[in-house]
Amino acid sequence: MTPLRQRMLHDMQIRNLADNTQKSYLIQVSSFARHFRRSPELLGPEEIRAWLVYLREERKLAPASLGATIGALRFLYRVTLKRDWSDEDFPLPKKPFRLPVVLSLEEITTFFDSIASLKHRAILMVAYAAGLRVSEVVHLKVTDIDSKRMVIRVNQGKNRKDRYVMLSPRLLEILRTYWHDAHPREWLFPGNIPGQPISRDAVGQACQLARKHSGIQKPITPHSLRHAFATHLLEAGTDVRRIQLLMGHRSLSTTSRYLKVATSTVCATTSPFDLLPRPEPTPSAPAAPEYF
C-alpha cells in the first residue's frame, strides 16, 4: 500500500465514512491512477476531465454511475492532498430524473406468493413491510426484532444513522415461523459463510427468480419493495414527514418524489377530458328484415 493510499484511508476512517464508501473510493482512485500510469499527486484537473470523458464515451457509464468516481476524486484532492480546487474542476454530469416503477398491492401479493423459500420470503417481506434497504435487511440481527415494543431497530443504516421502524403484526408471524424453522442465532438471515449474514447478491438473485415465477412484467429489485412501501403509505394517507423518518431519508425532498407516483396525488384531479360534454348517441339504423 502506497503512502498516499494509506493517508487517504486514514482520512476516510477519521471521518467515519461507511466501509462500502471507503472501498469504493479506493477502487475509483486506483483505476484513475492506473489509467494514466502515474501517481494521482502528479495529475490535475485536465486528467480528471479526460478520465470522465473516457468513462462516459468509451466505457459507456451512465451519469449516475460517475457519482462515485467524482466523490472519490474530490475527497482525494480536497481532503487528503488539500488542493484548493473548485467544483468546476470536478464536473458532475446532470443525472436524468427518473421516477420509480411502483408495484400495486395485487402485484406485491402475487410476487410474495411466488417465493418458494421461507427464508427468502421473510427477507423480502421485511424489505416491503418495513421499507428497509437491502443492506439494512441483510444486517438485521435477531435482537433487532423487538416484539414487545413492536419495532425493528436498524443499526447504522445509510449515513451511519440508527432508526426504528414499525414491526407489522403480520410480519411478526412470518418471522416467528421462519425462526422456528431456521433457528438463527446472531444474524437474522445468516449466509453460507459461517458468522456472516446473507449477501445482497443472494437476495437480489432470489428477487429475480421470484419475479420470473410471478409473471410480473415490471422490473423488480429488493429496492422496488422499498419504493412500494413509501408509495403505498402515501396513498393510504400517511404524512410525508413520517414517511421520511421511517425511510431514513436525510432530505424531505427525497421522500417528496413519491408524491409524483402515488395514485392519491396523480389520480386525485379530474382530467379535463372527463369534463367535455358527451356526444349525443347516434340513432341506430333500422334492422334489416329477415327472410328465413
UniProtKB/TrEMBL annotation:
Keywords: DNA integration, DNA recombination, DNA-binding. The keyword DNA-binding applies. Residues 272-292 are annotated as: Disordered. Residues 98-271 form the Tyr recombinase domain. SUPFAM superfamilies: DNA breaking-rejoining enzymes. Pfam families: Phage_int_SAM_4, Phage_integrase. The keyword Cell division does not apply. Belongs to the 'phage' integrase family. This is Phage integrase family protein.
